[in-house]
Specification:
It is a single chain. The protein is about 55% helix and about 10% strand. By secondary structure, the chain is of the alpha+beta class. It has a four-stranded antiparallel β-sheet, with helices on both faces. Strand 3 (about 250) and strand 4 form a beta hairpin. The longest helix is centred in the last third of the chain and has 30 residues, at about 265-295. The chain is elongated, with a radius of gyration of 24 Å. The two termini are about 25 Å apart.
Length: about 325
């Protein structure tokens, strides 16, 4: 959902930039992937080989270019002038470092892959390696054994999350996850709000057309979940049945007239329920993970990271590292 300016609690752009973490599913949600400038390397020996790193770099670079073309890399994503390329590389580096911390945490807890998981990973690595073209292999440089090691790490990290959160109640009620669809009109004057309200409640009125004429916010149609708006807005919106229109609602200096289009969006509610459950799982995991990470930091050395190649490899087109993993491990 694209939220209107100054009111959205979660930036749409941040979700666009983080498609990499959507690919990484539970693991990505469970750990933060931002490095602090100037932090030390992992130690005398890095936990990854350069080809292992290049598997993830190539996968995510190609995934983005498939959607946005290579013009995306020079787009600046913040006021400091950070480019999309720099942001993605920083996130990938953080992801790999966090995965190493998770390996150490799993080791400290005696958590290992099962025989079945190990067998699945072996077959997965074989299949992924067979999908790599000559151009892929030339750019990435990874062996089948390195692919298998990378998948083992990723599978272990996901197993760790599941093991450490298996006692957590992840049930989310329909009421808590409920998503509704509304139309809204936003104005700055209470007098204008009352005038517009009279118009939209007149017999045969076209709410959308009136909204296009009067609303100060370009966002007229929107989906809404609980906790995403002010209390006054939310109370009015969630009290409506299909087709009903609220009285003008004051919120943060603006006046809102809300029409309920769908008082229960079943599909969106199911998606949000999963998101809330994942957030609860994330919170439980981080209560353990954050302290361990503070005491056991893992950093890819600058010397190794400086060898990462983002440009070139025009014949490298691989994009399915995480997609294939989800086929083998759908849960």
């Amino acid at each position: 959902m694209i939220r209107s300016k100054n009111r959205g609690k979660n930036s749409f752009l941040s979700r666009v930039w983080l498609t990499f973490f959507a690919a990484a599913t539970v693991l990505a949600a469970a750990v933060g992937c931002t490095r602090a400038a100037g932090e030390a390397g992992m130690g005398e020996e890095d936990a990854y080989t350069l080809p292992e790193i290049m598997v993830i770099v190539a996968t995510e670079r190609n995934r983005y270019e498939t959607v946005y073309t290579d013009q995306i890399w020079t787009v600046e994503v913040d006021e400091a002038g950070t480019t999309m390329k720099d942001m993605l590389l920083d996130q990938i580096r953080g992801f790999l470092e966090d995965m190493e911390v998770m390996r150490l945490l799993a080791e400290s807890r005696g958590i290992e892959l099962t025989a079945s998981e190990t067998s699945q990973v072996y077959r997965l690595a074989q299949e992924y390696y067979r999908t790599l073209s000559t151009g892929d292999l030339a750019f990435i440089g990874a062996s089948e054994e390195e692919i298998q090691t990378l998948y083992e790490r990723y599978c272990l990290a996901n197993r760790l999350v599941n093991e450490l959160t298996k006692e957590v109640n992840l049930e989310i009620s329909d009421n808590e996850a409920k998503v509704i669809t509304v139309q809204q009109i936003v104005v700055s004057s209470v007098d204008t709000a009352q005038d517009v309200y009279s118009q939209v409640t007149a017999e045969g009125a076209d709410f959308g057309a009136i909204a296009e004429e009067y609303s100060e916010d370009v966002e007229i149609d929107r989906s809404l979940g609980r906790g995403e708006e002010s209390e006054s807005y939310e109370a009015a919106a969630f009290s409506l049945e299909d087709g009903q229109i609220s009285q003008p609602v004051e919120s943060e200096g603006k006046y809102y007239i809300i029409k309920c289009v769908n008082s229960y969006d079943e599909e969106a509610t199911a998606i949000r329920k999963n998101q809330l459950s994942l957030a609860r799982k994330n919170q439980a995991f981080r209560s353990i993970y954050d302290q361990f990470k503070e005491e056991n930091p893992a950093r890819i050395s600058d010397e190794l990271w400086s060898q990462v190649n983002f440009e070139g490899g025009e014949d490298c087109i691989t994009t399915n590292f995480f997609d294939l993993y989800r086929e083998y491990f759908p849960d």
